[in-house]
Design brief:
This protein has 409 residues and is an alpha/beta fold. Helices cover 29% and strands 23% of the residues. The protein is globular and about 65 Å long.
Length: 409
């Protein structure tokens, strides 16, 4: 999308504003399909937690996607968007048995990641198909907070606990129809996937009724010019060949599944905010915007990089700015960043704002959350209204207190 289009949308819908380019989401989906076109059965389950707007879910459903969910609320969003239960996989962590049973009753594919819940569920529901999430003990990911397959991770059943896992399956007689892993996000080295694949394939041979093998996701997208990213074409070529060989050894053709979130929606997202103040201090020039980590927390939480462009003056002379928010804590989006000259009232655009941006927003400082717009077939469509003060107070139960009674000594 071009600066002119983004400015028009900000003018039409107000700011701060999230904008998503449907064409980019569609092209990323097709890119992944093409990379694994040599696999007989490919299933792409979009990771709802990345961006859970129902209109985004419906767009991906139109393309043939399934869903990867981590909560019963995400499952319900998927059903509301029109997904069939059997096209949804549910991979929670640390949730109650009651929630898992409630999801299972909806007909959704269950994916269990600890031995205790596996044994409990298998004893009560031996005929319900279950996928197992394996922890391969591989350290992978762009940040410790998004590396989830290492030995100290809370996610998955340790590969070293396989004998115990097999005993539970045998004792309960439960039906294991899938095996799953997810090592982390922002993985660059294709070799990591291939190494983990060998662990997963070896584990899969212990289960005779599998229908699919699920590799999660973690594909890295570029965050700035000339940034490195996961080579999807190379991964598709090498992993497809190895998966087809595995299927021959297993004795039948299985489904290869992935759960991309960031890969599909990150680059499609733009966050637009207005500069309230340009503040010169003894050592820094701050550009303070009408937003903060209540709207976009990733730079503060993960140290993530978002390319920032002054779309009001895209060809202006570049100067150095620290872009900060209006939260009463340090909420720095970028430090000492080269940006076209900024004036108060200019609109800044943050790139790669499609994944884990709006979905992690909050009402901190009692601020309202932005509107969301989908740019689809040359037109901006409002897909979430901007919150109001009434939205913040709607669920509060306000108590009345009697005036304090004065006392005398």
């Amino acid at each position: 999308m071009e600066a002119k289009q983004l400015l028009q949308l900000a003018d039409e819908f107000g700011g701060p504003l999230y904008v998503y380019d449907a064409a980019k989401i569609q092209s990323q989906y097709r890119k992944l399909e093409k990379a694994f076109s040599k696999v007989g059965n490919l299933r792409i389950n979009y990771a709802v937690k990345a961006l859970s707007n129902i209109s985004i879910l419906k767009l991906l459903k139109q393309m043939g996607s399934g869903l990867d969910t981590v909560s019963i609320e995400e499952v319900r969003l998927g059903l509301l968007a029109g997904f069939a239960p059997e096209t949804i996989i549910y991979t929670p962590n640390g949730v109650s048995m009651e929630e898992i049973e409630e999801v299972a009753a909806l007909g959704v594919q269950i994916n269990i990641d600890n031995l205790s819940i596996l044994e409990q569920f298998g004893a009560k529901h031996p005929k319900t198909p279950v996928c197992i999430r394996i922890n391969p003990h591989i350290m992978a990911g762009g940040n410790s907070n998004i590396s989830v397959g290492h030995i100290d991770s809370k996610f998955g059943i340790s590969i070293h606990q396989l004998p115990h896992l097999l005993r539970i399956v045998e004792n309960t007689g439960m039906h294991i129809n899938g095996i799953h892993m997810h090592t982390g996000s922002d993985i660059l080295d294709v070799g990591v996937f291939l190494y983990a694949a060998e662990i997963l394939f070896e584990t899969a041979m212990h289960f005779k009724e599998l229908e699919f093998v699920d590799f999660g996701s973690g594909f890295k997208v570029p965050y700035k010019k000339d940034d490195i990213q996961t080579d999807i074409e190379e991964l598709g070529k090498k992993l497809s060949r190895r998966f087809n060989t595995f299927c021959e050894a297993y004795g039948r053709e299985l489904t290869l599944a992935f759960e991309p979130g960031k890969f599909l929606v990150s680059e499609a997202g733009f966050f637009i905010a207005k500069v309230n103040v340009v503040k010169q201090t003894t050592s820094t020039v701050f550009a303070g915007i009408d937003s903060g980590f209540n709207h976009l927390i990733r730079p503060m939480l993960y140290g993530s990089h978002h390319f920032i462009e002054n779309i009001s003056n895209p060809k202006g002379k570049e100067r150095f700015y620290s872009v900060v928010g209006y939260i009463c804590e340090t909420d720095t989006f970028a430090s000492n960043r080269r940006i076209a000259e900024i004036k108060e009232g200019d609109m800044l655009c943050f790139r790669n704002a499609g994944a884990y941006c709006f979905s992690m927003s909050s009402n901190y400082n009692s601020r309202v959350r932005p509107a969301e717009v989908l740019w689809y077939e040359g037109k901006g469509h409002l897909i979430r209204q901007r919150e109001t003060f009434e939205d913040i107070t709607r669920n509060q139960v306000i108590m009345d207190f009697e005036p304090a009674v004065a006392t005398t000594a």
